[in-house]
Amino acid sequence: MAPPTKGQDSKRPRSEGIPEFMIVDTIPKNLWRWWTDMGSHEQRRVKEHLEHLMHIMKIDPRRDVIKALIPF
Q1: 10: which residues sit within 8 A by CB, 6+ positions away?
Q2: What confidence tens digit (pLDDT) does each residue in 32-61 have?
Q3: Contacts (Cβ under 8 Å, ≥6 apart) of 14
Q4: Are 1 and 54 in contact (CB under 8 A)?
Q5: Angle 17-65-8 from CA coordinates, rounded to 5°
Q6: Are 46 and 40 within 8 A, CB to CB?
Q7: Quick one: pLDDT band at residue 19, thresholds 50, 70, 90?
Q8: DSSP-derived secondary structure letter, 7
Q9: Taking 60 as the threshold, does the pLDDT of residue 7 lie above it?
Q10: Which residues are paired to 11 by β-bridges?
């Protein structure tokens, strides 16, 4: 699994009338570092508890679709 790449912009402008929030399109570096520093045994134990939630680290989101769906 390759490290994540940085998105284009990290915050929506506040002037759009939508409550302030951030679109998360990359894995935070500290989380990625924590995960890669673990051995296979530790990673397996985390996967036992989180199950399919671990697949969220492999998602490559489309920012244009996220921005289009935010008002809904």
Answers
A1: 22, 23
A2: 899 899 999 999 998 888 888 877 777 777
A3: 20
A4: no
A5: 80
A6: no
A7: low
A8: -
A9: no
A10: 22
